[in-house]
Amino acid sequence: MKKKKIAFKMFLKKGNAEEYFRRHAEIWPALKSLLSYHGISNYSIFLDDDGETLFAYQEVDRVGSQELALQKIVQQWWAYMADIMLCNPDNSPITVPLSKIFYME
């Protein structure tokens, strides 16, 4: 099965870039395992020069990755990050999907 390439933006609350980096440097191993189990790989997050906009890229090879939002550890991570990110009422980060315009292999 061919992997689907997904890119999206997320947003930090002003002045929280350092804390965001710190928390991701200590990302929970169980969360990483769950992401891998659900077919997510090549997951990268970049910070824009504005210090508030995050650009995320991931490849997904399993259709059931939408189930992640229902997982307790994902919800706990969202709650852990909610004080430094712009979030939806359920603590999930506000995301804006990006359209692929160009790809070079």
UniProtKB/TrEMBL annotation:
<keyword id="KW-0963">Cytoplasm</keyword>
<protein>
    <recommendedName>
        <fullName>L-rhamnose mutarotase</fullName>
        <ecNumber>5.1.3.32</ecNumber>
    </recommendedName>
</protein>
<dbReference type="GO" id="GO:0019301">
    <property type="term" value="P:rhamnose catabolic process"/>
</dbReference>
<dbReference type="InterPro" id="IPR013448">
    <property type="entry name" value="L-rhamnose_mutarotase"/>
</dbReference>
<dbReference type="GO" id="GO:0005737">
    <property type="term" value="C:cytoplasm"/>
</dbReference>
<dbReference type="Pfam" id="PF05336">
    <property type="entry name" value="rhaM"/>
</dbReference>
<dbReference type="InterPro" id="IPR008000">
    <property type="entry name" value="Rham/fucose_mutarotase"/>
</dbReference>
<keyword id="KW-0413">Isomerase</keyword>
<keyword id="KW-0119">Carbohydrate metabolism</keyword>
<keyword id="KW-0684">Rhamnose metabolism</keyword>
<dbReference type="InterPro" id="IPR011008">
    <property type="entry name" value="Dimeric_a/b-barrel"/>
</dbReference>
<dbReference type="GO" id="GO:0062192">
    <property type="term" value="F:L-rhamnose mutarotase activity"/>
</dbReference>
